[in-house]
Amino acid sequence: MQKEDLLQTHTRIAPYIHRTPVLTSRLLNEIAGANLYFKCENFQRMGAFKMRGAMYAVLQLSEEQKSKGVVTHSSGNFAQALALAAQSVGVKAYIVMPENAPQVKKEAVKGYGGQIIECASTPIAREEVAAQMERETGAFFIHPSNDLNVILGQGTAALELLEDQPDLHYIFSPVGGGGLIAGTALAAHFIGQNCQVIGGEPFGADDAYRSLQSGQIESNETTQTIADGLRTQLGDINFPIIKEHVEKIIRVEEAEIIAAMKLVWERMKIIIEPSSAVALAALLREKDAYAGQKIGIILSGGNVDVQHLPF
Amino acid sequence: MQKEDLLQTHTRIAPYIHRTPVLTSRLLNEIAGANLYFKCENFQRMGAFKMRGAMYAVLQLSEEQKSKGVVTHSSGNFAQALALAAQSVGVKAYIVMPENAPQVKKEAVKGYGGQIIECASTPIAREEVAAQMERETGAFFIHPSNDLNVILGQGTAALELLEDQPDLHYIFSPVGGGGLIAGTALAAHFIGQNCQVIGGEPFGADDAYRSLQSGQIESNETTQTIADGLRTQLGDINFPIIKEHVEKIIRVEEAEIIAAMKLVWERMKIIIEPSSAVALAALLREKDAYAGQKIGIILSGGNVDVQHLPF
What we know:
Number of strands of chain A: 10
Strand order of the largest sheet of chain A: 1-2-10-7-8-9
Order of helices and strands of chain A: HEHEHHEHEHEHEHEHEHHEHHE
CATH architecture of the largest domain in chain A: 3-Layer(aba) Sandwich
Largest interface: A-B, 18 and 18 residues
Oligomer: homodimer
Helix content of chain A: 40-55%
Structural class of chain A: alpha/beta
Largest sheet of chain A: 6 strands, mixed
CATH class of the largest domain in chain A: Alpha Beta
Shape of chain A: globular
Number of helices of chain A: 13
């Protein structure tokens, strides 16, 4: 993997994604005691950074592969992202979703032209049903986070952030399945000027923290967190990148996630989902260590049910 | 009043305000059937366009006037705006607020260094108390909307919007006390290329609609609307400008305001207050008449209690 791969990924997906703005806030700078640059992937198409990786993965398919479609399993933003990315280039998308997924998420996938296949609500069931769809239709399976093309796509958010603010000392990113933070770490490594990447992770789903401690992929012991995008775990493709290029992972309490989310809503007047707030929460938890630094924060997405808020 | 006055106002206040972004949304364009350009004054300092007018009014004071401070009466955004504007140049601000104003608003005014004077919750009481403060302290009274400097300041939002998008056919603005729409109308007149200004107003506080019908300033018969920034009425300084330069006013139902607000939250991922949603609601109510046009929409502010939402 080289800098050229990331730059070429960005060029390839640029016509299909938004170049999202980087926002600042005097008040949040005061609260953090540092200079913060928020990369607003909540303004990305379909409302999250996932669009980047999905788009690149779809664009990398051969014409023959495209003709048979793509398949993934996701109950969250990647389901919508793959449906929209596939639709953008006229490719069929099969999305395996748990039968108990929220109706609003199913509607969103349908709205982007995705075909939903329901499965039981267990990790094994969704993998099995996705594998079955792959066999039956010949569709190409794209993993939401453990896929090199997806990782490169997600890295373009930090690439853009570093183009706008080349001299960041740190970038904070949430850690879920590992695609975003792995891509961010590659971007910081290739493009940054000695820019360190730090992950934020809920105590309630801290597989990545423990994986970095033990040196091997650990499973989540619980997935009890409001940050529903971060309940998944690392994979064998993204973990080596994370192990090599991520400085550290800071775990945060649920109350810290909710407080950080409320802070962004009230002070920056933008809507972010709980998973997005985890990166800011991580910085605020250990802010004394980062005082005066120039820090990028990836606001990963804004898909939240405004009728059911945690505050 | 000339184009030069508006340009000079903008130059004068520019160091003290944010040049707010103009956002677009494919989804909202599809829903409206037109090309929309949202001027995001919800990202303005203290969270609303009111900062512009307050800042200009304060900057226009003589040194002697500044030494005695400023006074206004407001339970809403102008209270915060004048406190912050005054603080920005080291001037004392006396803010007359009804005793039953929400604690969070009082705290915000105090946070910006304003001194609160409580009064009974009637229009007459607040005017009397403000006049009394003026007499006692020598502070200069600045009206939230019926003041030429305030109107010019508010007009700089549309000025910036037209600098970014010079060929807008229409600008939609909410109508409350009349300062914003009068300033917007001046900007469209001076800077626009045949750009018409249209107001959005709640049926529950439709003094401006009826004033344009009758040709004289009418009072609100009720002020029952969720759009709490629009419960005030026009004044003798802004009404002549509105009468001359505003194309029409479209009234909207409460349900339309809430629906427009939810649309912006969910689709654009930004936080706007109910008063801000009135302009979009007005456009959507009569969207067939504006199909295919290039339309600016002033999102006037984002100060809303996220713990008490109408949806």
